[in-house]
Design goal:
Oligomer: single chain
Order of helices and strands: EEEHEHHEHEEHEH
Structural class: alpha/beta
Distance between the termini: 24 Å
Helix content: 25-40%
Shape: globular
Strand order of the largest sheet: 1-2-4-3-5-6-7-8
């Protein structure tokens, strides 16, 4: 359904990405921000699912500045390698690259953003700093608590797993306290990565609640 694309950031850097277009006239567009595993099979499938829902979906390869076209699976060894990208993330560069994806689809209609893991944090920060967005959704973004003093400029919805070993529930409560206008959902028994059906931590019950909830949020705000 989709195709590989090239995007150009504001500083002239060219990065890769993936774009999926719906069969008919699009309702709008959604930028999809990857986990630490790159624009891999799972992120492409998320784009394809969004295209089936009537949105243009675009996933920028936000690790291209350090390792072009990095893609990874989910074995313990692959996870260990992928973690290097979050040891010292360049937020400014990731946001520039995210803005390039927003700009690439802004002619389609209203634009939303959704991100997972690292991408969940990027989606939240994008909602506070970038232009051209109408709504943001973040899944299990571990760094969101660090940016919780910053208020999103657009309606924002966040999803967390109750049993996420990398995100303390106290962090989630801090976000809820600082940002009462943000819609926050906690999924009982769910771990980090619960939405990804290619990971051992996949939780179908939670994912089957969170995904329609995300789509309903976009349907409400992307019009």
């Amino acid at each position: 359904m989709g195709q590989d694309i090239t995007l150009t950031a504001s500083d002239g850097f060219k990065l890769g990405g993936y774009r999926a277009d719906p069969g008919g006239a699009p309702k709008g567009a959604i930028v999809v921000i990857q986990e630490i595993f790159g624009v891999n099979h799972h992120i492409r499938s998320v784009c394809d699912r969004l295209a089936q829902e009537g949105y243009v979906a675009i996933a920028p390869s936000i690790f291209d500045r350090s390792e072009p076209n990095f893609q990874s699976g989910y074995s313990p060894d692959e996870v260990a390698v992928a973690r290097k990208f979050v040891a010292n993330p360049d937020w400014a560069a990731m946001l520039r690259d995210t803005q390039s994806a927003i700009d690439a689809v802004k002619d389609v209609g209203p634009v939303g953003i959704i991100g997972f893991c690292l991408g969940g944090s990027v989606a939240y920060v994008a909602a506070t700093r970038l232009t051209g967005l109408k709504a943001a959704v973040g899944y299990y973004g571990g760094a969101i608590v660090r940016f919780a003093d910053d208020k999103p400029k657009v309606p924002t919805q966040l999803h967390f797993g109750e049993k996420d070993s990398g995100i303390a529930l106290t962090d989630v409560e801090t976000i809820k306290a600082k940002r009462p206008e943000v819609e926050v959902h906690i999924y009982p028994g769910a771990q980090h990565g619960f939405h990804c059906d290619e990971r051992a931590s996949y939780d179908k019950i939670s994912a089957d609640i969170a995904w329609p909830r995300s789509l309903a949020f976009f349907a409400k705000h992307l019009r």
